[in-house]
Amino acid sequence: MTPRILMxxxxxxxxxxxxPAAHAESATVEFTPIIAYVAPMKSQAxxxxxxxxxxxxxxxxxxxxxxxxxxxxxxxxxxxxxxxxSLELVGGTVLTLDAHFFQADARVRVRLNSPDADSGxxxxxxxxxxxxxxxxxxxxxDQGISTPAKFTGIVGLGGTVAVSERVRLxxxxxxxxxxxxxxxxxxxxSGPLDSPTQHELVFSAGLVIPLWSN
Length: 214
Fold this sequence. Notes:
By secondary structure, the protein is mostly beta strands.
């Protein structure tokens, strides 16, 4: 299922440039419930002088976004996303913990093609927070291990395909960039902790619901 979600979202964004016009009504305010696939690209932490690596696994999730088109080309958008994941502690063996991603962000969508077109391609840029919680968060904090929420930068591309006068589908592909969510008190390890900058690829698809049109 996961490869199919990736392929559908990626092809959907590309198809926005070639989809036939359907004269969808241009909404000033839009609500978009979404499904998403979140793919962490970096390990959360590498323990020095140890084979132990901590990493989050890809997961599927859901959320919603609210967009206000302040001009025909520029929209201000806020979003919330939850995704189920797992946290793996990889050493001699693999220990897997249940984990959850929470993302909240504010972004700007800039229409790259004509705003008069029924289907479009958008540039996405914004900021937000990313939180990662695992099943042992409370116990881990007592041991000097924490998973704080991190300030996040967002960049990506999005597209909208008009399928009728009122119905449009939106596909977004984004890179969420932030510091590692997994912090360990360096007094508990020998040497500096390696916490790579995180890149989470977020592919989402949703149905655009117009709330108010001018």
